[in-house]
Amino acid sequence: MAAQPDFWTAxxxxxxxxxxxxxxxxxxxxxxAGDQGAWRQLVSRHxxxxxxxAWYVLGDRAEAEDVAQETFVRLMQKARDWxxxxxxxxxxxxxxxxxxxxxxxxxxxxxRPLDDAAERSDGDDPAGRMAHRMDLERAVAAALDRLTERQxxxxxxxxxxxxxxxxxxxxxxxxxxxxESLLSRARRLLRAALEAESGDLLGDR
Amino acid sequence: MSTNDRSEADFDGAITMxxxxxxxxxxxxxxxxxxxxxxxPMLALLNSSARARELRDSACDVDRLLDTLRxxxxxxxxAARVNAMHPAAPRLRAxxxxxxxxxxxxxxxxxxxxxxxxxIGFGVGNYDPDPVAExxxxxxxxxxxxxxxxxxxxxxxxxxxxxxxAPRSGSSGFGTAPLLAGSEAPPAEEAEAAEPVPLI
Lengths: 205, 200
Fold this sequence. Notes:
The complex is a heterodimer of chains A (205) and B (200). Chain A is mostly helical. Chain A folds into 2 domains: 18-107, RNA polymerase sigma factor, region 2, helix turn helix motif (Rna Polymerase Sigma Factor, Chain: A, Orthogonal Bundle); 115-201, Arc Repressor Mutant, subunit A (Orthogonal Bundle). Chain A contains 10 helices and no strands. In chain A, helix 2 (24-32) packs across helix 3 (36-58), helix 4 (61-78) packs across helix 5 (89-107) and helix 8 (149-160) crosses helix 10. With 200 residues, chain B is mostly helical. Chain B is 57% helix and 0% strand. Chain B has helices at 17-27, 39-48, 50-67, 76-84, 90-101, 103-126, 131-140, 143-146, 150-156, 177-180, 188-193. In chain B, helix 2 (39-48) crosses helix 3. The termini of chain B are far apart. Mean pLDDT of chain B is 65; it is low at 1-5, 92-99 and 136-200. The interface between A and B is large, with 62 and 43 residues.
């Protein structure tokens, strides 16, 4: 059974807050004490990235938002037992979200819907460029969907989420060498799948 | 060898073209995504080698393709829902949930349910589901017996349906027998005389 956070004495909490008032750890401490402002700060810091990560993995906006919300529910449940100085909150959140995504992906996979892309198109894009961009987004999304789960996750963690090689390897429970192998293979497959489109669609660079 | 233990000490400040290619193949052309300890030697090699720059440009293509896919921002409704989760007193809520996980309240709830079930069972056992059957029993008795006071038939109660054995003195069950036990039980001959005649 997890030990109750008796070590979270007021003194330790105050010292932590003094040292890193803006750190995730400090905010989780405040959340554990019922601080709504700290909760909002954590939401502001991580919600968009969590939705993005889930969307890159699942390809569905509604499901991505469900995953992000469920991740915050888990955080709220975890807040009282959070150990400052232990695992980084960011890594913990993204690992939880990743596991939720994998569960959903395994239970009900379906092709990535592309209406999200249409919603995000720039209003001032000329029609031709917008159509090209949407074609390219569809092609990239389809190519990502054809990767294995671990290859896609590696790309999402490193390319889209900006995790370091060590962080991503730890989240995938593998070595940095294995991570590099996953990334190289994934990028080669993406290049091969998109070669036809990329010459045309990236020709405007 | 696992490179999880890689550190800056593993690098002597130089990097081979093969390693540069491996890094570009894996992490792309963006320097901030490269392994931190190899970033400086990578940049040095790129500055000095045209071939290295060609490799980097090639890696750029895949980066550009990936960058075309932009995740949607969270909806305002989601942000409102998550912000509205109130972190106040999470311990209280957790304790409430935990209290129902302990066996004591569950056992109490089960005991109350069983008691209610037993009371309902007694009620159903004493319930006369078919008054017509009682009338038929009375009609099949001999005339002398039918002339007996109505109270005897009333004390005996209705006969059990054919599929259920009529409770006798000393038998168990939820029929009328328990009500006739003890000091309230009639004398043996009275009980025999009052025994209902089975329906044919």
